[in-house]
Model the fold of this input.
Amino acid sequence: MTPQISTHFYQRLPSAIRQAQIVFSQRKDKDLIRVVNLAIGNVSLPMHPAMQKRMKNLGEANSEFADGIVKYTPSVGTDNARNALLNIIGSEGIDVSHLNCMITDGGSQAMEIMMLGVCGPSSKRPLMLLDPAYTNYIEFGKRLSIPIITSERKISNDGSFTPLDFNVINEVIKQNNPKALLVIPSDNPTGQFMKQSDLIALARICVKNDIWFVSDEAYRQLYYGDDTSSSIWKILEKDVPGIMGSRISIESASKVWNACGLRIGGLVTDNLKFHTKAVSEYTANLCANAIGQEIYGTLAHESHESLQSWYTSQRDYYRSIMLPLRDELQKQIPGLIVTNPEAAIYLIVDFRNICDNKFNGSDFVQYCAAEGKVELDGNNYTLLLAPMSGFYSDPAKGRTQMRLAMVEPKNLIEKTPKLLFELYNSYCER
Done:
């Protein structure tokens, strides 16, 4: 007789962003296929130069790791790592004197601690997101038995998203009584940019309804229009009386700093009690990665001018990839809807105007990973994507959509339009 796994484990499936990668790993001919993996935001660019230098010098005589000893850090994080996080926020012209921060094992761990702090496990009151939403929040909701509610965003035929309807959002809050509203100003998965005026309007709704205002700011400096970055930390008390003490942000070293594998994130709040209890909760995790904190912590000593120069270089790089890619996708596949790249590192493609009623994006992603292949330049390629059904509270709303992450080298990303065209045609002809 074999012991039984829990019902929770039995029901678990891989998240939408990992699904294709797992399927491809089980493919018999995988060693003969070159992969363009746009399914997960696993950035393939070098880290900030100061971080690279610190990593290379970890074993030198003047390093605290020179003797090979790697101890736990304080649960709240090292001073250097915390100061780096505040220096980054401060480089945006934000007063950080009232902010409390802790370092976590990646932004994902900060998400989970936040959800435990604002809702609690098995909460009857939900967390509110904007649909479609980053799938990890939905998955953590399942893990912690926290209900998720959403206010819908729709993709127009021109690739733009419908403007936020603040009256609808307020009504959803009144009807469902969530503990918090969570937004991603430079949005994952949509690539939509939320202006500062939008954040102020949402902050007023949160104060009016006495709920937490949470912002995932992992992509804060990655925006491609004429606006400056937007952040809940740029909201002043005079703009929204009563906002002080009700804000939380999720931070990450992964995207802007090209350090996904460091697994360093942060939880920032202007509420001291929340911060203190969050650190208490995190003591069960002991601490975040000590070596990762050391590498990230070097940013505490970078000038704001140096950091701003880095942000500009990152924006220029992604802009140079995303705008031409959108144009080529639309040329290669007439009628395909491709979202406007306003922020972050993602595009959504929607086949709804060209596919039949049987088309299923999740099944198409499975096909590409399990058996699809296209011959280009004498090599066989396939494309790994993330099905958008995993980003919606109602999976049917993402049936014809996929998310593309701009994480492969430029020469591989440029193959995407041809690959998507050929894979879609071969899928439909089966």
